[in-house]
Amino acid sequence: MHSQLPVLRRSLLESWRATLGWTIGVAAALLLYLPLFPSIGGNDQMQQLIDGLPPELVSALGYDQIGSGAGYTQATFYGLIGFLILSIAAITWGASAVAGAEESGRLELDLAHGIGRVQYVIETSLAVIVRLCWLVLFASVLVIALSGPSELDLGIGDVGAAALALGGLVLLIGAVMLFVGAASGRKTWALFAGTAVAVGGYAVNAVANQSPDLGWLRVFSPYAWAYHQPPLTAGPNAAGITALFAVSLVCLVLATALLNRRDISG
Amino acid sequence: MDLAITTAALRKEFGACTAVDGVTFEVEVGTVFGLIGANGSGKTTTLRMLLDIIRLTSGSIEVLGQDPRQGGASLRKRIGFLPGELRLEGRATGRQILDFYASVSGPIVPGAVEQLTERFGVDLDRPVGDLSRGNKQKVGLIQAFMHEPELLILDEPTSGLDPLMKREFIQLVREARDNGQTVLLSTHILSEIQQCADSVLVLNKGRAVANGDVESLRLTSIRYLHAGISGAQRDVVQDRLTRIGNVRDVVTSARAGGGIRLAATVDGPVDDLMKALAEFTITDITIDEPDLEESVLSLYEKPVGGGHGA
Fold first, then answer.
1. CA distance B289 to chain A (A)
2. Domain limits of chain A?
3. Does residue B57 sit in helix, strand or coil?
4. pTM over 0.90
5. Where would you tag: which of A5, A42, A57, A231 has the fewest CB atoms within 10 A of its CB?
6. Site from B11, B79, B101, B145 to mutate, A interface, most A CB atoms within 10 angstroms
7. Would the CA dihedral through A25, A26, A31, A32 be positive or negative?
8. How far is A197 from chain B (nearest CA, A)?
């Protein structure tokens, strides 16, 4: 009866409906936005409309590059709706991973069986990572498939760079939540931390875009680490993406260490 | 004498609150050990420390020859645990949950789950979130017993079970003992202890107030008498009963419509009392066992010990 990675397999099995739902959400967003590029982004009238908007609004939304296929895809999907969908997925999964299991009493019963605490954190983290990777991969394949018909002119390498940036960003959100959940055992605190990283990072980046004097703020924005150098046109930002993955790894290691040290509450 | 559990000066503090305060006890292999006490007496905290779900502040624990912290997952595979507040939620069916725990704590003997399921009569194909409190408890009991662990740690195992299932549970515990397994069960229901436990630890506010074999603790020696008597004077009845050595708290009162209402407490044999009562005309009588709280209260007045090792 022994099986490999039982907690990971259980998490994936139990959440396949949710994963399917998020996948449909990603597909709907891409199928809604990307085919509109020839009539919106590449349209001179649209460009004139955007030129007429307050520049602060345009830079906050990331619409300043909307005339190119890469800029349009970044502004609509990777920077906005795709980021939103994957962030919410990461926040949902990150909250239920350790803190949610603890609050529901499941963690107590699981750990009373032949499951180690380190193993538990590693496997639940992997379950979050696998599902986020799936969503990023699915989005990437669909973006590549739509690139031609929607006249976006995106290369596979460009999409790969954007996938790394988006994947790293939502991974960080999930990892921070696992860390806070493992440290506190409180779902609410984990939710607060994950939302702070997602919304706070986005807001700080939007403020930083307002003036070159505020550019230093980007250091505090994981969103900026991922996207300040537009991955679809300029390739992956090595420093930013390394930071996303490194901080995520540190959070996961700390989560493992902290859960292993403390009392489990029922 | 092989010991399944030993603790020494076990102590657990949560901030400023001391939940368990210097508890020392031993559980012999192949026996049923009852842990009793009121809510908040430290039962659940003690059990959780045995499983390394929470960590002790000081003292020491050995479970199946190992420190629970060091023993880790491989030690806990040898233990079956039922939490006091079992919460099973969600869409997973009972069978999926049992399959999962079998995969991490197995192997289990083929047919073991089916046999337990049949005894308890629970539908394993329904989502556990839809099950009643009692049926969730049955799933919880099955996951604790199914891999025939050397040690069973059961926190309030019969809560939510109907009387028939309680009896089935007691039978299961006896079979486990006959099978050489050790059972540690916490409860506040005295009759369960009487029916299956070999020895008992009574906790009050985190401290052990009694520890020993069930008989020596004489948990059940107190009885409450209520009777109606006709054709006798109150002071005669009062005087007659007060003279019996082990009868106390004698209260008589006149009953509307004639006769006397009598209440008294007997500690120990009831023979003298019954013979004294036989001198009167008794219209009705009940003799009740005390509930656990009263038994425990009576234990506070006695010195700790009386059983093995004490």
1. 34
2. 6-39+69-261
3. coil
4. no
5. A57
6. B101
7. positive
8. 29
